[in-house]
Amino acid sequence: MTAFSLEPAQLAWCAELRTLAAERLRPLAEKGEPGHVNRALVAELGRLGLLARLFTSGALDLCLMRESLAHGCTEAETALALQGLGAHPVHAHGTESQRARWLPRVADGSAIAAFALSEPGAGSDAAALGLRAERDGSPGVAPGVAPSADGRPTAVASGDGAWGVEDSDHSGRGAVAGAGEVPGVGEPGRSGRGAVARAGGVPGAAEAGGGARRAVARAGEVPGVGEFGGSGRGAVVGAGEVPGAGESSRGARRAVARAGDVPGAAEVGGGARRAGSRAGGAPGPVVSDAGTRGARTPAGGPPGAAPPPPGAPAPSDLAAHPDGPARWRLSGEKCWISNAPEADFYTVFARTTPGAGARGVTAFLVPADRPGLTGTGLDMLSPHPIGALEFDAVPVTADDVLGEVDRGFRVAMGTLNLFRPSVGAFAVGMAQAALDATLGHTARRDAFGGKLRDLQAVSHQVAEMALRTEAARLMVYAAATAYDEDAPDVPRRAAMAKLLATETAQYVVDTAVQLHGARALQRGHLLEHLYREVRAPRIYEGASEVQRGIIAKELYAHQEAR
Q: Any idea where the Acyl-CoA dehydrogenase/oxidase C-terminal domain is (predicted)?
């Protein structure tokens, strides 16, 4: 890949996107509340068909979209990217049931997605994440279902209108946590390799002979040691829908019993908060009097939220219906999560096998209404919706798993390899916007008896800005094309593209501010906005230092393989 150029149709599409960003999307962005999800903006991206393209386009088209939108409206670019980042694991690794349920809503902008990888103590070192997925102590009974005297599952409605969790071991669990969390920013990336499959395809499995038995980890025992063996069978109660993937390994079959509608299930969309105790167990929004950015709220709704706005998903549409033979409780924290705590579902990475590093992580699809899941908004330099999440024994099942148990790191890395070049494209779009503003300003501005552009010190800086921007753009396009062609060096190219483009954008925007002078620092100026926006991409989805580590590792691995 020694040369690269866009086709005329691609160039025309980019020009159209820049116009849409400036004329249709920026006015919606300006009406949004800083630090919160702008659902009207996301819905407009859906109406324009741009969100649907996240699931049909290759990496190059994704880069062209992000670069073009960033040039005219960074908020629209970020909203589009976050929908893709949070939903791509579902698109690439989800079951048919998971995909059918969530992807159409992501595509039309009625459901907000989030990618929950980072933690207060595991940013760049994602393999060190500590969110625990501990085996639940009640085999074969789905949440929302209680065993009756004859051992048959019986639907149970929880008193607070939330997902029912009454059973022999966890009666009434799922209370909202109230502890504080540490604020911060950024999604990390890393150079970790995918996990290795374990015996029988189910890590942590306890194999039994012929007729399988299930070893269940109770409270205080080591999690991840109870699985189906040989030809085991698991009786499962469906909560309103037939379970999808997540079959037990080694030929295991599942007996599925329908339980009708979901008892005590309620989904909260559009920023509405999950109700507490209500008459008849019926869910409904409650308005908090906190009203502050840092207030604790059930994930899926901002503090003091009103009922769902137009375009938000209906409660019945997004209600969680989990079931399955394998069950876990998620406990711990996530931090610097974009779209938290207002997303409608999260792709969550949790440790299912302690001490196994990257090989003990599993990806789960967690709807925002799960009991025990709460969030706190964080006030950041650039006012995007970013927050921390707390998991207090949040229930998940095999039907919530994305990909395979203990192989979630592969899900994370595959997602980041796709999105890293497009982070570079976002940076290139900002750099181009700063360069265009500088060209106009230096051509108009009178100084020292002439125009600023006539000063060699100025014109040479403008030339350097253009040179670096174009070099970054070409590297981004080359990395995206390598991804689309399934080239073997995608991790190295993706890291190079993100590193060069984000560092370049920082330089270009900073130089543009210098050449504009004090006016560029005035609140509301384009460059003041870009100056705050451009800093975070050098951190999230893999800090610059992490990218250099990936590049070096890949180079030495290639040398040793020769």
A: 406-555
Is the Cβ–Cβ distance between 329 and 136 less than 8 Å? yes
Q: Which of 398, 393, 265, 264 is nearest to 323 (CA)?
A: 398
Q: Is the pTM of this model over 0.70?
A: no
Q: Which residue has the tokens 């004090």?
A: 518
In 3D space, the residue among 482, 507, 508 whose CA is nearest the CA of residue 493 turns out to be 482
Active site residue 267: no
Cross-strand pairs, 234: 254
**Contact status, residue 292 vs residue 315, Cβ threshold 8 Å:** no
User: What pairing do the DSSP bridges indicate for beta strands 361-367 and 401-402?
Assistant: antiparallel
| Backbone φ and ψ of 460, nearest 5° | -70, -35
The one catalytic residue among 267, 541, 545, 560: 541
Cβ contacts of residue 560 below 8 Å, gap of 6+? Answer: none
CA distance 462 to 321: 57
Task: Read off the pLDDT of each residue in 409-430 and give the average, rounded to a whole number.
Answer: 94
Residue type, 408: G
Angle between helices 96-108 and 39-47 (to 10 degrees): 100
CA distance 323 to 306: 31
Q: Residues near 20 by Cβ (< 8 Å), separated by ≥ 6? A: 48, 72
CA distances in angstroms from 478 to 6, 471, 506, listed in the order given: 11, 11, 21
CA-to-CA distance for 163 and 142, rounded, in angstroms? 11
Share of the chain above pLDDT 70, in %: 66
Distance of alpha carbon 305 from alpha carbon 536, whole angstroms: 28
The reply to whether omega before 341 is within 30° of 0 (cis) is yes
In DSSP notation, 473-485 reads HHHHHHHHHHHHT
